[in-house]
Specification:
alpha+beta, about 100 residues, 5-stranded antiparallel sheet, single chain
Length: about 100
């Protein structure tokens, strides 16, 4: 009574999907400054919730390790204010659909 191979593959694929979802929704981590951040697929790319001059931003940026092996924000990135962040959130499904269409 062995399971068909296709059924096993579906189960394994479902397990992989569940692990990915769990990994993606593990919640924020904290950096050395106490700011909440989310890893974007690798340790170098992060989305950080950051306060600057009294305003809150979503900072999507590449990071690097300094001489003391601490993660520091690099020059490559984008800091979104509340208005920009809301605009991106409202368009994310359309952006994703176009990305999928072109890939």
């Amino acid at each position: 009574d062995e399971e068909p191979r296709s059924s096993k593959r579906k189960d394994e694929s479902k397990d992989d999907e569940d692990r990915q979802k769990k990994k993606q929704k593990s919640g924020p981590k904290k950096n050395d400054q106490g700011e909440s951040y989310f890893s974007l697929g690798n340790p170098r790319k992060r989305a950080t919730i950051r306060s600057f001059k009294g305003k809150l931003y979503v900072d999507i940026r590449e990071h690097y390790r300094d001489d003391q092996e601490e993660w520091k924000p690099g020059r490559k990135g984008l800091m979104l204010n509340a208005e920009n962040w809301e605009s991106l959130k409202q368009q994310i499904e359309e952006i994703d659909a176009e990305y999928q269409r072109q890939s």
